[in-house]
């Protein structure tokens, strides 16, 4: 995933996760639902692919990656919050 900002926490003068949830709670419900559905569909597709490629132990592989690459995962998660918040806000105008 592309890094949108060098110091994500400075974006909007706060934590991207907090800003994302503030946006979700105040934005149009239909738009938020559509964006969440996109996230869940992508999640299910990736989970299905992992299970096909790795087998039933895919959850163990996920835990390993979360532990071994926590900084990278946290950075990508911040970028995802910003990306989805932007998608919600741009559709709300």
Overview of the structural elements:
With 93 residues, the chain is an all-alpha fold. The chain has one domain: HP0242-like fold, CATH 1.10.3350. It has helices at residues 16-26, 29-54, 58-68, 70-92. The protein is flat.
Please give a quick description of this structure.
The protein has 93 residues and is mostly helical. It is built from four helices and no strands.
What level of helicity do the residues show?
Answer: over 70%
How many distinct folded domains?
Answer: 1
Helix and strand run: HHHH
Q: What does the overall shape look like?
A: flat
The CATH homologous superfamily name equals: HP0242-like domain
Radius of gyration: 15 Å
Distance between the ends = 26 Å
The overall pLDDT, averaged over residues, is 87
Query: Mind telling me the CATH class?
Result: Mainly Alpha
What secondary-structure arrangement, pairings included, does this model have?
Layout: H1 16-26, H2 29-54, H3 58-68, H4 70-92
Helix pairs in contact: 1-4
Task: Describe this protein with a few key phrases.
76% helix; 93 residues; 4 helices; HP0242-like fold; mainly alpha; flat
